[in-house]
Amino acid sequence: MPVKFRSGECIPLEMHKTRVIQRLNLLPLEDRLKASQEAGNNTFLLKNRDVFLDMLTDSGTNAMSQAQLAAMLDADDSYAGSETFYRLEKTIKEIFGVNFFLPAHQGRACENIICQTFVKPGQTALMNYHFTTTKAHIMRNGGKVVEIVRKEGLQVNSDLPFKGDLDIARLRHEIETLGAENICFLRIEAGTNLIGGQPVSVGNMREAVKIAKDAGILTVFDASLLSDNLYFIKMREKEFGNTSLKDICLELGRLFDITYFSARKLGCARGGGLFMNREDLYNEMIGLVPLYEGFITYGGMSVREMEALSIGLWENLDIHVIEQTPLFVEALVNELLAAKISVVTPSGGLGCHVNAMEFCDHIPQEQYRAGALAIAAYIASGVRGMERGTISEERNADGSEHLAEMELLRLALPKRVFSLSHVKYIADRLTWLHENRHLIGGLRFTLEPKILRFFFGKLEPVSDWPQRLADKFKKDFGDSL
Ligand SMILES: Cc1ncc(COP(=O)(O)O)c(C=O)c1O
Prior knowledge:
Radius of gyration: 22 Å
CATH architecture of the largest domain: 3-Layer(aba) Sandwich
Distance between the termini: 32 Å
CATH superfamily of the largest domain: Type I PLP-dependent aspartate aminotransferase-like (Major domain)
Bound molecules: pyridoxal-5'-phosphate
Largest sheet: 7 strands, mixed
Mean pLDDT: 97
Helix content: 40-55%
């Protein structure tokens, strides 16, 4: 909850207290340098014991509430027909106003089921913006992705409150030129991940879905990042200022043909699922659940996580639960803006997104500006963020590099995990890094997997810049970690 201090400063006061803690470890500088080399300069490959603040992602790393932990003890462990499943199914039906639910082990598993069922070779999926695993599944099934996010969504800074909104004129144009029969579905992603956790408005979703439905095109909603998006709908979309979060969820659940989500994000647990009102769609997909996930009453999830998810979904309807990440993101964004560091604005959900295109404008984009910034930030702070730029793209069919539209270092803020002093620490180290950014150099691949290379590809610095950066850190901070 934002509160004003006597100085006039606004502080995102936490509406929870911490009663279970995890010890953190901040390695000395030399060890951080060594760990970055051993990880192939890829923050995904760092061992968590070598990381101080893990801001890689909020996926499966959000803090659970005591009610969630308590519910886990109440799980009904059976392969088929578990009471736990029926509780979760009832929760989803009640919150989203739908009739059918299919469980899956995580978000990308839902994407696998949807894409295997609905993507035919040569077809196009229209969407506000892709997510890495979504695009990979569509392409594996012979499809293509066309992004129709509004142009402001791809600008680092804009006043648009909903930068994840679709360009409605483009949507009409694409349907007309491609032909509805060549479009497998329209997908809208809440809290659009790769463009900085930017929300989509209900007004825009209503309009886009109507156009698609009128043209006979299937509509799919990726609700993985719905919790932050819900907060922004409530705060930024006038029509919903007085609407309950439950009523917004009901409207969204009923709007789309299919909704899927990663419960590693939505509901602060681990798992995922798909829900819908159309029985024909449910019947088309259900066969793939036992094939890839597990029986249809657990879908690869542990019953304990399913119990936690049921509670987590209800807790998402509490504004003090869903506000925490957006308010902390805003606090970090404001600290960095005050230090004249370019970040994605308006501040969104999920995390703070530093504009590596500008931070490292002296590095050729082919040498992975955001990847270089991610590893430099780890060396300078022990904080691990995630590259969301060219490394996260797939190469073009001819093998050439697909340069990303945005080069971002994402510093995720898992829900209820970090404190304000953690936010101030990373802001301070990034400010130092910005002052010394000319010392950061580029990277090149030494091991480049064909699919989703950002996960486990390895890179090396193009010069000895990490050592020179570490030397400067030592000079400025002495023995301080
Ligand atoms: C928007 C979005 N969709 C899908 C996924 C995939 O979910 P999972 O990681 O559970 O497979 C993610 C994960 O980060 C996501 O952010």
